[in-house]
Amino acid sequence: MKKARNRSQVPYNPPSNPLLIILSGPSGVGKDAVLARIQASGYALEYIITVTTRRQRVKERDKVDYHFVSTEQFQKMIARNELLEWANVYGNLYGVPKQLVKQALDRGQDTIVKVDIQGATTIKKLLPQSVFIFLMPPSMEELISRLKQRHTESPFNLDLRIKTAEQEIKQLPLFDYVVTNRQDEIDLAVLDITSIITAEKCRVTPREINL
Questions:
Q1: How far apart are CA 152 and CA 55, in angstroms?
Q2: C-alpha span between 120 and 101 (Å, rounded)
Q3: What is the model's pTM?
């Protein structure tokens, strides 16, 4: 006669809702590089591409790094309520397409969005059950060095980004997790982020995103 399995031996598999992961941090901390490394690893995430009016930089690809649009196009998206959030950052407009996020979550797909601190603050109010991760530089000195090495800002804009970063780091309590992105150790930052996702998937009470 087959022995009945003891109730205590039955594994508990809590329901797993799709996660909306918000990755943010100061300019120059390496958000794009970290996301690119996660994507290259084949990790199963839906990557939402931000819309921006910023001029396309060398080596950037439209509809891969950003959706580059005109200010007029961006304003139309605002008027049609097509953006989950949007902000004016250093004189350029950035926004997250709402429909792309909704479609991914409706498919049950874990989704990651890269936004600035303003964007994270807005999404926190709209969708507080999202997973908020702050990407932190190892030091302000290291962050300043990275910004200078990019050679993409004028001295005025560089100074503005540094001052803004100092204020943004003070917003850390808004986030659920902090991950430090150290020079030449991007794989460790990626491991930390994927470990956070794994831990979130093991929650007894899963997060519920209603968009």
A1: 11
A2: 15
A3: 0.87
